[in-house]
């Protein structure tokens, strides 16, 4: 019979319990046993919720204290030498050290998981690395569920995906050369899972939706020729796109089941059915990455056609991917209006949708006719709602021209005008924008939201925090200060709260990395800006210093990528609407006397399609949206942008086409390796390579930062280098922030002395 299946459940808890427990462990407030107990409690709850929702195939080992890729790295004992691991088991402290670093060892690199805003810890590979099974986490969590009376399907990250996502630290070494060692470990683990009672395992190979090299294709064949015989039956899961030209390869692998993402690529089911296969097909019909209700009638049409051609007994109904990327439970949202609530589904509700579709196939549509009727009503109501469409926004968008996306002069001319106006020294120092969001700041914001702190008192509090922040920056000697962003809850949510077309949740949290959670806004309608959003605080901060205050904005692509975006029009249309709103803010900041404006676009690379053939279309509209937002200013106003945790190699022409006067990038974890890409490309504008990894609790010394800056000056002309941290400082504390910024400024001063003036 057709089974309802799930690929993964959010780990963080409905109220971010995992985040809070993990951070308490890091600060020493609880011990490892208490953290493990909280993890066990969350897993038990999640398994029970899935069972209660009618899910017949429930995952285990989808839970992680930090990241599923890091879990696999720990499982395989792939600990970098700098962590001095003597061998044997990888415990919690070593696990977290790899993710966060220690005083003696920098953290492993972090980057985006495919085209999501989830970050994973990048595996590191060397030629003489010894891999060995160093944890039993998949086996332990399978047994844990069994002891609770829940039969699960353990989830493993596929060997080829894990190796392909890693980074070789030895020149000329291909991580795929470790494949046989990895397969030895996987085969042993699968045998143990079979011995413990597991009939199936889910192995995730999302790499199947990418452009694969011949070596990767061969590695996939070798992997499943061996693992298909090693233990339980294998459900091979692909997601985030279509198999495309990898379809024949995927269908040829000797696995028992294949999962297809039919939200991102609904058309691929026809090609798979036409090709014919004896595998169990898992149909990903419920969107695991967005929060809109599934059109159950449309999904059921696809499922019914598959049942007719493939047989209902060889089908599973599932979300398109793990629900890791979805908030936990809509039932907590007691402040959303009825219309919006009726359009949404979070993880728990998505499981209910999966169960309804599976039951409809098993027992017929009449068995769930009430659920289908209610869903059809909600889908139709959203489609015709007057809240979605704004004729004025559409008219303005239609009038946008190419001239609106061009600066008046080329960068060399702008650079001279800006240097004369700003009077900055060589290696100018600045930060990325935010400063520590202390308990006092968070408490004041919460009290204001609850009505316990008046508007006037809250403004006075924010003015005090801003005044103190600017004074500290002046005392430290930063050349370009910022106001600190104490009024902002999140770099996207803050703007969405002031734009029409956005809605907000109270508990719509999703994991971004480690214990970092974000609460994406919901873009449900046409976007416009009713009033200025940031001018008040940037202008106030400028009155507190003689140095040029940098105005801070989030760019249109990042607001798009880090929101739950409406799915009833092209994403590029929504992005351009956001760009017009940001354009108005840029113009108002310039009119208020702000000479430097930063428009952050850390998500530009994240939004890149997974297939190379689709890149240029996306880059054209994404870069166009940034330029539309940045180009109403005069040549004398300096436009910055910031990008982090991305691979830039393949999109350098697009980054150059953004034509920001200054770009700041994350480079400290890679020891400035990323900067070489900009040097090889001969990137024409100014660059601020990050020399302080703010995602780690380490406090790098002035000597360490100076060394990084020397490496930067060796490949980028000194008169085009800025000095800054990797990212914003909201998650750091004031003592470490002030110490590290002193070291950063010392490094800049050292380089000013070392590097001769230009001829």
Automatic annotation (TrEMBL):
This is 5-methyltetrahydropteroyltriglutamate--homocysteine methyltransferase. Belongs to the vitamin-B12 independent methionine synthase family. It comes from the Bacteria. It comes from Pacificitalea manganoxidans. Zn(2+) 1 binds at residues 642, 644, 666, 727. Residues 5-305 form the Cobalamin-independent methionine synthase MetE N-terminal domain. Its EC number is 2.1.1.14. It is an enzyme of class 2 (transferase). SUPFAM superfamilies: UROD/MetE-like (SSF51726). L-methionine binds at residues 432-434, 485, 600. GO terms for biological process: L-methionine biosynthetic process; methylation. Pfam families: Meth_synt_1, Meth_synt_2. Keywords: Amino-acid biosynthesis, Metal-binding, Methionine biosynthesis, Methyltransferase, Repeat, Transferase, Zinc. GO terms for molecular function: 5-methyltetrahydropteroyltriglutamate-homocysteine S-methyltransferase activity; zinc ion binding. InterPro entries: Cbl-indep_Met_Synth_N, Cobalamin-indep_Met_synthase, Met_Synth_C/arc, UROD/MetE-like_sf. L-homocysteine binds at residues 432-434, 485, 600. 5-methyltetrahydropteroyltri-L-glutamate binds at residues 16-19, 112, 117, 516-517, 562, 606. The keyword Repeat applies.
């Amino acid at each position: 019979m057709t089974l309802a299946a799930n690929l993964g459940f959010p780990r963080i808890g409905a109220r971010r319990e995992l985040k809070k427990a993990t951070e308490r462990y890091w600060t020493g407030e609880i011990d490892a046993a208490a953290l493990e107990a909280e993890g066990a409690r969350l897993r038990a709850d999640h398994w029970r919720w899935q069972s209660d929702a009618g899910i017949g195939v429930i995952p285990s080992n989808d839970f992680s204290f930090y990241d599923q890729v890091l879990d696999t790295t720990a499982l395989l004992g792939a600990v970098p030498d700098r962590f001095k691991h003597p061998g044997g088991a990888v415990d919690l402290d070593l696990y977290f050290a790899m993710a966060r670093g220690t005083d003696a060892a920098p953290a492993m690199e972090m980057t985006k998981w495919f085209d999501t805003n989830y970050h994973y810890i990048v595996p590191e590979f060397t030629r003489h690395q010894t891999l060995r099974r160093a944890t039993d986490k998949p086996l332990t969590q399978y047994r844990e569920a069994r002891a609770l009376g829940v039969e699960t399907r353990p989830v493993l990250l596929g060997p080829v995906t894990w190796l392909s996502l890693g980074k070789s630290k030895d020149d000329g070494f291909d991580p795929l050369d470790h494949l046989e060692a990895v397969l030895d470990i996987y085969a042993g683990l699968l045998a143990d899972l079979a011995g413990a009672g597991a009939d199936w395992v889910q192995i995730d190979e999302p790499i199947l939706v990418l452009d694969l090299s011949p070596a990767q294709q061969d590695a996939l064949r070798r992997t499943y020729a061996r693992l298909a015989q090693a233990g339980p039956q294998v459900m091979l899961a692909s997601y985030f796109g279509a198999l495309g030209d990898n379809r024949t390869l995927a269908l040829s692998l000797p696995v028992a089941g294949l999962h297809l993402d039919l939200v991102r690529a609904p058309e691929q089911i026809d090609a798979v059915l036409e090709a014919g296969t004896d595998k169990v097909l898992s149909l990903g019909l419920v969107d695991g990455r967005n929060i809109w209700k599934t059109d159950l009638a449309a999904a059921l049409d696809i499922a019914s056609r598959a049942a007719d051609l493939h047989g209902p007994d060889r089908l599973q109904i599932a979300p398109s991917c793990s629900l890791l990327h979805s908030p936990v439970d809509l039932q907590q949202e007691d402040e959303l209006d009825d219309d919006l609530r009726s359009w949404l589904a979070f993880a728990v509700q998505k499981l209910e949708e999966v169960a309804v579709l599976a039951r409809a196939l098993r027992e017929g549509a009449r068995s769930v006719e009430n659920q289908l009727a209610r869903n059809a009503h909600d889908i139709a109501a959203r489609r015709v709602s007057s809240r979605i469409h704004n004729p004025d926004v559409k008219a303005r968008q239609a009038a946008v021209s190419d001239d609106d996306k061009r600066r008046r002069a080329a960068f060399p001319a702008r650079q001279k005008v800006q240097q004369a106006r700003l009077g900055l020294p060589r290696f100018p120092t600045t930060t990325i924008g935010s400063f520590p969001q202390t308990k006092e700041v968070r408490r004041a914001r919460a009290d204001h939201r609850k009505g316990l702190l008046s508007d006037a008192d809250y403004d006075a509090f924010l003015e005090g925090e801003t005044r103190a922040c600017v004074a500290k920056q002046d005392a430290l000697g930063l050349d370009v200060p910022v106001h600190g962003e104490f009024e902002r809850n999140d770099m996207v949510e803050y703007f969405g709260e002031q734009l029409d077309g956005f809605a907000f949740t109270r508990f719509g949290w999703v994991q971004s990395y480690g214990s970092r959670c974000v609460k994406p806004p919901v873009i449900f309608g046409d976007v416009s800006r009713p009033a200025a959003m940031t001018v008040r605080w940037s202008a106030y901060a400028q009155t507190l210093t003689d140095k040029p205050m940098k105005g801070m904005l989030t760019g249109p692509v990042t607001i798009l990528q880090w929101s739950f975006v409406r799915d009833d029009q092209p994403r590029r249309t929504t992005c351009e609407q956001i760009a017009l709103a940001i354009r108005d803010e840029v113009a108002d900041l310039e009119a208020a006397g702000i000479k430097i404006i930063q428009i952050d676009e850390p998500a530009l690379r994240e939004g890149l399609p997974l297939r190379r053939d689709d890149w240029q279309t996306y880059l054209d509209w994404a870069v166009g949206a940034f330029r539309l937002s940045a180009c109403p200013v005069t040549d004398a106003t300096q436009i910055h942008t910031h990008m982090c945790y991305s691979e830039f190699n393949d999109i350098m022409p697009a980054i150059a086409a953004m034509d920001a006067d200054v770009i700041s990038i994350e480079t400290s974890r890679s020891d400035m390796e990323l900067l070489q890409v900009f040097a090889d490309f001969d990137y024409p504008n100014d660059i601020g390579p990050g020399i302080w990894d703010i995602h780690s609790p380490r406090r790098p010394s002035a000597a360490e930062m100076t060394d990084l800056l020397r490496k930067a000056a060796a490949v980028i002309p000194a008169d085009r280098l800025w000095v800054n941290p990797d990212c914003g400082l909201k998650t750091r504390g004031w003592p470490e922030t002030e110490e590290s910024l002193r070291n950063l400024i010392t490094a800049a001063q050292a380089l000013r002395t070392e590097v001769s003036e230009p001829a």
